[in-house]
Amino acid sequence: MALGAPFHLTVLYRGPLSSCNYGCPYCPFAKHRETPEEHEADRAALERFVAWVESQPFDVSVLFTPWGEALIWPRYQHAITRLSRLPHVRQVAIQTNLSGPLGWLRDADLGKVGLWATYHPGEVSRERFLKRCAELDAMGVRYSVGVVGVPDQLPEIQAVRDALNPATYLWVNAFTGGRPYTRAERAALTHIDPLFEVNTRRYRSRGYACQAGETVISVDGDGAARRCHFISTPLGNIYAQDVRELLAPRPCTRVTCHCHIGYVHMPDLDAGAVYGDGLLARIPEGPEWVAPGAYLERARQLWRGGRLTGL
């Protein structure tokens, strides 16, 4: 990318934090407890990243995708507040279980903040989780709610959907660690989440266009920039060079892509038509969300064209 060209960069930031206050059996992450020294290293890395965003001469959006739960720590609350108040930051979002305090959001620019909130039955009561959602509604915070589509938890997932604000999108991630879904289970989950079908596919991605590495990058605590979380080869380091020198159109090198934060950046799917400005927080706001049939049809066309494999 030519230096000086106007553009908007989206950064998925994942620092060294790897602890969580939950212990979900289906989650492969956050099985570590940080020492005070490790927390300090994470704090320093986060501060360095926020300062980097502050110094950039172009528009930036940030999605925090921690290995564990970050919003229980004041440093992440302060980072999101600080970023949201920067004039060149368009959006700042974070994945969270909503277990931490929420009052800090009143100091943030809520027009820019979005929460990607996940409900974990067995780790928190439905009543407590819904109370947190009601607090977000009262403050006017933009958020989505999601669950892992474990078949045995279908009644609980439906109960949460019934109790949530009808305007709140509830997404369902396909559960890949068990038996295949029955036809009835797929139908029930699609009734809850009209976009569930898209998450049940593995997209054949090798050799196909993706915005990852061009307008979207993944950055770790040391500043290493990669195309996305799923391609380990670094492009360079944001602290060692102008990040725009690292960006270029590149075909994907992975065989398949099956995670929402990956495949939504594939131009063929045109996820922006459904999510609009809510893309980072998984909040459908685009013109096709009212009737997302075109989005699903694009996925099916890719399927018929050999671009997808089913879960």
UniProtKB/TrEMBL annotation:
Highest taxon listed in the record's lineage: Bacteria
Protein name per the record: STM4011 family radical SAM protein
Transmembrane segments: none
InterPro entries: Aldolase_TIM (IPR013785), Radical_SAM_STM4011-like (IPR047771), rSAM (IPR007197), rSAM_sf (IPR058240)
UniProt source species: Deinococcus rufus
Keyword flag Ligase: no
Keywords from the UniProt entry: Iron, Iron-sulfur, Metal-binding, S-adenosyl-L-methionine
SUPFAM superfamilies per the UniProt record, alphabetical: Radical SAM enzymes
